[in-house]
Specification:
Oligomer: single chain
Number of domains: 1
Strand content: under 5%
CATH topology: Growth Hormone, Chain: A
Main location: membrane
Organism: Triticum aestivum
Family: Belongs to the major facilitator superfamily. Sugar transporter (TC 2.A.1.1) family.
GO molecular function, one term: monosaccharide transmembrane transporter activity
CATH architecture: Up-down Bundle
Keywords: Membrane, Sugar transport, Symport, Transmembrane, Transmembrane helix, Transport
């Protein structure tokens, strides 16, 4: 995570004191590296499914549609349309969806670090099955174990990063998770490009088994990670331990104001017996709606079509095996640079501006690709290479737009708007929706491309229009506001104040009571 540029800045949100210490940076680098796991899988699955040796061994029907006697009669848009191939790609996300719901309880009861350890360990086991696979069943076990691992890591890591970060740098540090996802995809694309040249056709085994490397780094690193101050207070009310941790994180002894807010939030959280039932209450309606819609919109941009079907898609429009894999590398390089830009500007310009600008950029890109394919790419024959590379350039513009807006902010915004008492449940909802929609897109895209053809890109572009309007009208700005004080944005918003306004008195009473408890339990510095 490239957050070294932020180390010396003073912390300032809502009167909190301190700075971004090297201790925070190191902890967040280790935790944020869990994004590499998710990214690596996204990149690897698309790469290996475009390799002829992999298709010939596990998916011979697809191979014959692409290279065999069926190739002349099958539409260009339908060459990779296979139920078994889509099950291989998308089975991971069903396992991840189920796992993330269990991860919420583990994260709340045993801590963020425990979920990270579980996720990393299961991911290593899944990698072993992938590298040793001799049939489709072993591949499916590989995908299911990877899904369980990602369910735990993706649920806990954004929480960990948000709770460790000072308010005014929370966006930059949390966006490091998306940067790590992008780096993971880039590493996978480079590995795929290299191993497909290995004679004997066994390079895909390297691709699948190498997933264990970032998982091992995360798992070993998690053993030494500190727990967040929020969890230390939530676990057993140990304010002294939380205060020492907060002082170490902020590099100052003047952390009392932030500590008081954490104690208040924790006391409210302890009164909640069932976070999933609680998040359905009217006063949490804005958080629930955004926790559902932000990840939903993230997926209907079509980004995961690029992530795990980019090599397949570039092969579909006529590029060779090596060129298709290299094209995936190029698009991911653009995304990685855009991720770094997002980390630098997100806390300066805010969440809304990035989401709106990125949305407009993606709308134009999807509609342009759809128009080019409509005019220049037919059911049979090959697209002119000039237009194939033009599609590549436009896809680079698309992924850059996503990478500095909806990519990182999908993990940041829902995490920072949820108060502690529903934060873990809210993050589980976010990750569950991501996995569910990734499964749906993965399961349907190749068939959709076969039937809708170029219209697929107009469909994604239409969804981006809808989500951009949603941000404009319904998403308030949250930059540099402490998470424990986030409720005020809903009371000031033109729409949400009509919903949460009736619960304002109840919320104030709860916070007043919890604040009184905090004043009596928290040791004040002299």
């Amino acid at each position: 995570m490239a957050i070294g540029a932020f180390v010396e800045g003073p912390a300032g949100g809502a009167g909190y004191s301190g700075r971004v210490t090297s201790f925070v940076v190191l902890s967040c680098i280790v935790a944020g590296s869990g994004g590499i796991l998710f990214g690596y899988d996204l990149g690897i699955s698309g790469g290996v499914t475009s390799m002829e040796s992999f298709l010939k061994k596990f998916f011979p029907d697809v191979y014959h549609q692409m290279k065999g006697d069926k190739a002349a009669t099958v539409s260009n848009y339908c060459r990779f349309d296979s139920e078994l191939l889509t099950v291989f790609t998308s089975s991971l996300y069903v396992a991840g969806l189920v796992a993330t719901l269990f991860a919420s309880s583990v994260t709340t009861r045993y801590g963020r670090r425990a979920s990270i350890l579980i996720g990393g360990s299961v991911f290593i086991a899944g990698s072993a099955f992938g590298g040793a696979a001799v049939n489709v069943y072993m591949l499916l076990v590989n995908r299911i174990l990877l899904g369980i691992g990602l369910g735990f890591t993706n649920q806990s890591i954004p929480l960990y990063l948000s709770e460790m970060a000072p308010p005014q740098y929370r966006g930059a540090i949390n966006n490091g998770f998306e940067l790590c996802i992008s780096i993971g995809i880039l590493i996978a694309n480079v590995i795929n490009y290299g191993v497909q040249k290995i004679e004997g056709g066994w390079g895909w085994r390297i691709s699948l088994s190498m997933a264990a490397v970032p998982a091992a780094f995360l798992t070993i690193g998690a053993i030494f990670l500190p727990e967040t101050p929020s969890f230390l207070i939530q676990r057993d009310g140990n304010v002294d331990e939380a205060k020492m941790m907060l002082q170490r994180l902020r590099g100052t002894t003047g952390v009392q104001k932030e500590l008081d807010d954490l104690v208040t939030a924790s006391n409210i959280s302890r009164a909640i017996k069932n976070p999933y039932r609680n998040i359905l209450k009217k006063k949490y309606r804005p958080q629930l709606v955004i926790a559902l819609l932000i990840p939903f919109f993230n997926q209907v941009t079509g980004i995961n079509v690029i992530n795990f079907y980019a090599p397949v898609m570039f092969r579909t429009i006529g590029l060779g095996e090596s060129a298709a894999l290299m094209s995936a590398v190029v698009t991911r390089l653009c995304a990685t640079v855009a991720n770094i830009v997002a980390m630098i500007v997100v806390d300066k310009f805010g969440r809304r501006k990035l989401l709106l600008v990125g949305g407009i950029q993606m709308i134009l890109s999807q509609f342009t690709v759809g128009a080019i394919l409509a005019v220049k790419f037919k059911d049979h024959g090959v697209m002119d290479k000039e237009y194939g590379y033009l599609v590549l350039v436009i896809m680079c513009v698309f992924v850059a737009g996503f990478a500095w807006s909806w990519g990182p902010l999908t993990y940041l915004v829902p995490t920072e708007i949820c108060p502690l008492e529903i934060r873990s449940a809210g993050q589980s909802v976010v990750i569950a929706v991501i996995f569910l929609m990734t499964f749906v897109i993965g399961q349907t895209f190749l068939n959709m491309l076969c039937h809708l053809k170029f219209g697929t890109f107009f469909l994604f572009g239409g969804w981006v229009c809808v989500m951009t309007l949603f941000v404009f009208f319904f998403l308030p700005e949250t930059k540099q506001l402490p998470m424990e004080q986030m409720e005020q944005v809903w009371r000031k918003h033109w729409f949400w104040k009509r919903i949460v306004g009736e619960g304002e008195e109840e919320v104030d009473q709860a916070h007043t009571g919890a604040g009184a408890i905090a004043m009596s339990t928290a040791p004040h510095s002299s």
